[in-house]
């Protein structure tokens, strides 16, 4: 990037908000995705939508990439500045603007931490359900751009189900507002939904209005233990089949349980093959009834033990422990590569079996955990980037997993996004015409390809070996 | 693993919201230096210098990354490579090679401070505004320094107890603790005796080496570690007790410090396994149940010592002891697990960040409406005193070390 452009950035937002030091560039050269790192040209911290509009206009004129970044917890290399350019931070755009108790909405700036939103509304007896595992540090802007899911996805849906209005800066510097505090709105294309999950490739989101729910009155948590992984997976399908939608239905296999327990020390049994973490919320009576029914279903499917958490602290300990699963697995090896292939929930048992077969076939270690209740699994390879031979086998295994997920009617990514990591596989899911349509949409929004370039669209689609 | 779960636990990230001042960012920088991606060492060093070394990122890390030792080693490498200016070299030499390892000199140094305070010189300098000539933060710190006790001399090096089921412990006195906070050490010994411990005080013990280790002077730290291991091997105690979280954590890590020295490795492991914080042993030996503790009605709060909590894993015992004092209402300090900004000599070398952290800490303290802030480490104690003074709250809030607080509450003294 030329000094002249940096000078113009400084003119717009001031010297203290434009960083070009090597340490600064390095610290913003990565996100949470292994094996992706690239230096940006500068890092900027604007303080208003208007400043962002001016910056985008400048970058559009100079054809400089802009990568919007929250806390960098992305798992698909969506916020790694692989084409250099400007990393745009929301450090100063981190305010909750309004909690509207009449319309049950909250309006926030992109830099607000997800958990702070949850806490703020729960204080008013309201509820914001999307709860990605990184919610303690992830920002709502990042969640919106990735359409993040979480533990409560099967009952409450994901981020897109709660975003009802947006303010965004387009590539030409125009500011648009979509949606609003509206339960119904069919005025033209649903641009809100289009922007949610667009991974920063269409526009810079600068404000969001989110829908809130009344906070459920009661909540109960239980843990079911299994000798066989398949029994746990069968339980999942059986619960849904029995017309119960629990708030949480999480799965962990033995390697995951052991790693998590080594960190969290919450008393998880390390000698069982699999556990399910089950939660239900709602009014007291129906929670009670659902929990009893689900306990029976667990036992019918050969659970060796089913026990309720006695206190909210105990329950929170279990949830917290589950959220650390991916990071805790890093205790086993220097590198953990995880995927989030997702299948219809009726196919979960089949998918779990397939993953095990694939791991054996390619001689790699795969630990599996995930949101079993919504068919969203996180098979995680514990490996070492420096081991070239093994890395090739890991890649081959993941290709098989993607392929298998699609065969079962699933998708290559349930909640982490395509980013740069999964872009070579996008066509597997949506076909070449699908990718081409998306490309045209991108072109209409961003003709100079400055908005987070290199993400979603790959230079080349990976060849799929149909098995 | 770069999940970023450490970010919200890091006080400097919380203050700056800047990845450069986060554990994940610092590790990326260290790695970049190692991989030769970066040659601008000054920028990296700045990031490492702003790190408090509180190690709050470690318990927050599901992957179990040992940040503390990475930091120490990185600092040591920078220390070796950097061409030190003569002045810095000289100060470092005095502080690290002569002052801290030498208890006698330490006593002389605090003796000078004592003279300064007692002679009226302190009053005079304050009056004529002499301290105004110094940077503001040093002037403030000068005011917060506690009165140095008059005669620093212990009547004996062994304090036996007449009780069955007693344990034999060796007490690590610490350099700052055994000079500026001599009384606190006396309190600790008394508490240990009351709990049923025979207390040895090995005479050849030395500075723990934490200040050296944290500043990249690893070789100096190793020398001190060896001296201490030898000193404590002689008295064959069940436990080695510390009452300063900072020292305790460093002693606790001696096995790591000496892991590459075959003739010391095992001895260091034995030593490290005996390190116990005084609050843990008091709770284990049911001191608080066997003694009546009572004060006049007040609210107390507790600021964790980072290293006691994050490295030694002690968080419940100090709280339990405070809660066992009758008439004292314990009020948990929000974010008590976040560093107060003292962090060894951090508040002297990084005054700006330290003050920012302290200001936020004092906001939290005020929220508790506490009359007493209890701490378990001399650095924290001084910092809290400084915070109280900066806020002009000397008349309503005080800061005490837990050992002194317990002695104060002890009914039959």
TrEMBL record, chain A:
InterPro entries: FAD-bd_oxidored_4_C, FAD-bd_PCMH, FAD-bd_PCMH-like_sf, FAD-bd_PCMH_sub2, FAD-linked_Oxase-like_C, FAD-linked_OxidoTrans_Type4, GlcD, Oxid_FAD_bind_N. Keywords: FAD, Flavoprotein, Oxidoreductase. Gene3D superfamilies: 3.30.465.10, 3.30.70.2740, Vanillyl-alcohol Oxidase, Chain A, domain 4. It comes from Salirhabdus euzebyi. GO terms for molecular function: (S)-2-hydroxy-acid oxidase activity; FAD binding. Belongs to the FAD-binding oxidoreductase/transferase type 4 family. This is Glycolate oxidase. GO terms for cellular component: glycolate oxidase complex. It is an enzyme of class 1 (oxidoreductase). Its cofactor is FAD. Pfam families: FAD-oxidase_C, FAD_binding_4. The keyword Oxidoreductase applies.
């Amino acid at each position: 990037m030329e000094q002249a452009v940096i000078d113009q950035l400084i003119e717009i937002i001031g010297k203290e908000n434009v960083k070009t030091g090597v340490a600064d560039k390095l610290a913003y050269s990565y996100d949470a995705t292994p094996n992706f790192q690239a230096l940006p040209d500068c890092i900027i911290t604007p303080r208003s939508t208007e400043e962002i509009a001016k910056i985008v206009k400048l970058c559009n004129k100079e054809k400089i990439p802009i990568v919007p970044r929250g806390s960098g917890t992305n798992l698909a290399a969506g916020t790694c500045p692989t084409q250099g350019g400007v990393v745009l931070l929301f450090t100063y755009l981190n305010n909750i603007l309004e909690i509207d108790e009449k319309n049950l909405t909250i309006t926030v700036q992109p830099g607000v931490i997800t958990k702070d939103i949850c806490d703020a509304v729960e204080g008013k007896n309201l509820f914001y359900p999307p709860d990605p595992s990184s919610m303690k540090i992830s920002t709502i802007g990042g969640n919106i751009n990735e359409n993040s899911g979480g533990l409560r996805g099967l009952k409450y849906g994901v981020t897109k189900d709660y975003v009802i209005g947006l303010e965004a800066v387009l590539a030409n510097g125009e500011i648009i507002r979509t949606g609003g505090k509206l339960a119904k709105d069919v005025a033209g294309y649903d641009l809100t939904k289009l922007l949610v999950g667009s991974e920063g490739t269409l526009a810079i989101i600068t404000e969001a209005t989110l829908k809130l729910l009344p906070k459920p009155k009661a909540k109960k948590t239980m843990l079911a233990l299994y000798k066989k992984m398949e029994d746990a997976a069968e339980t999942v399908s059986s619960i849904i089949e029995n017309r119960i939608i629990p708030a949480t239905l999480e799965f962990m296999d033995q390697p995951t349980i052991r790693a998590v327990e080594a960190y969290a020390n919450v008393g998880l049994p390390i000698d069982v093959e699999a556990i399910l973490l089950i939660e239900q919320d709602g009014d007291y009576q129906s929670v009670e009834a659902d929990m009893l029914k689900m306990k029976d279903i667990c036992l019918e499917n050969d659970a060796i033990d089913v026990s309720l958490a006695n206190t909210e602290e105990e329950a929170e300990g279990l949830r917290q422990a589950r959220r650390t699963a991916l990071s805790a697995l890093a205790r086993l090896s220097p590198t953990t590569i995880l995927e989030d292939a997702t299948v219809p929930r009726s196919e979960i048992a089949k998918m779990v079996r397939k993953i095990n077969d694939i791991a054996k076939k390619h001689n790699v270690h795969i630990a599996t955990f995930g949101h079993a209740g919504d068919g969203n699994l996180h098979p995680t390879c514990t490996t070492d980037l420096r081991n070239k031979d093994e890395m090739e086998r890991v890649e081959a295994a993941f290709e098989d997993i993607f392929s298998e997920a699609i065969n079962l009617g699933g998708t290559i990514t349930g909640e982490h996004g395509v980013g740069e990591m999964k872009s070579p596989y996008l066509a597997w899911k949506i076909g070449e015409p699908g990718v081409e349509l998306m490309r045209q949409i991108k072109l209409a929004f961003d003709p100079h390809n400055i908005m987070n370039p290199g993400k979603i669209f790959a230079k080349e689609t990976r060849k799929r070996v149909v098995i | 693993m770069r999940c970023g779960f450490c970010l919200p636990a890091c006080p400097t990230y919380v203050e700056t919201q800047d990845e450069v001042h986060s554990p994940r960012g610092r590790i990326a920088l260290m790695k970049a230096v190692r991989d030769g991606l970066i040659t601008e060492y000054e920028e990296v060093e700045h990031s490492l210098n702003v790190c408090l070394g509180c190690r709050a990122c470690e318990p927050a890390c599901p992957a179990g990354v040992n940040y503390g030792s990475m930091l120490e080693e990185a600092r040591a490498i920078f220390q070796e490579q950097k061409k030190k200016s003569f002045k810095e070299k000289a100060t470092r030499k005095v502080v690290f090679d002569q002052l801290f390892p030498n208890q006698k000199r330490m006593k002389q140094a605090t003796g000078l401070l004592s003279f300064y305070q007692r002679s009226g010189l302190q009053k005079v300098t304050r009056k004529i505004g002499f301290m105004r000539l110094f940077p503001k933060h040093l002037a403030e710190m000068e005011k917060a320094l506690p009165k140095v006790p008059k005669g620093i001399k212990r009547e004996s090096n062994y304090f036996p107890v007449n009780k069955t089921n007693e344990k034999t412990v060796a007490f690590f006195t610490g350099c700052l603790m055994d000079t500026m906070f001599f009384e606190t050490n006396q309190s600790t010994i008394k508490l240990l005796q009351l709990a049923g411990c025979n207390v040895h005080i090995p005479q050849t013990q030395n500075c723990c080496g934490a200040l050296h280790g944290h500043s990249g002077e690893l070789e100096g730290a190793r020398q001190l570690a060896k001296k201490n291991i030898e000193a404590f091997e002689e008295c064959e105690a069940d436990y080695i007790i510390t009452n300063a979280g900072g020292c305790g954590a460093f002693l606790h890590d001696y096995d790591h410090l000496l892991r590459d020295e075959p003739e010391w490795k095992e001895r260091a492991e034995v030593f490290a396994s005996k390190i116990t914080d005084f609050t843990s042993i008091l709770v284990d030996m049911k001191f608080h149940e066997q003694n009546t503790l009572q004060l006049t009605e007040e609210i107390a709060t507790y600021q964790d010592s980072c290293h006691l909590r994050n490295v030694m894993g002690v968080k419940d015992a100090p709280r339990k002891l405070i809660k066992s004092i009758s008439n004292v209402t314990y009020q948990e300090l929000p974010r008590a697990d976040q560093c107060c900004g003292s962090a060894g000599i951090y508040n002297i070398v990084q005054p700006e960040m330290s003050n920012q952290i302290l200001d936020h800490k004092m906001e939290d303290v005020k929220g508790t409406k506490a009359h007493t802030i209890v701490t378990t480490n001399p650095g924290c104690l001084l910092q809290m005193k400084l915070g109280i003074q900066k806020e002009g709250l000397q008349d309503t809030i005080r800061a005490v070390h837990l050992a002194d607080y317990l002695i104060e509450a002890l009914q039959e003294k």
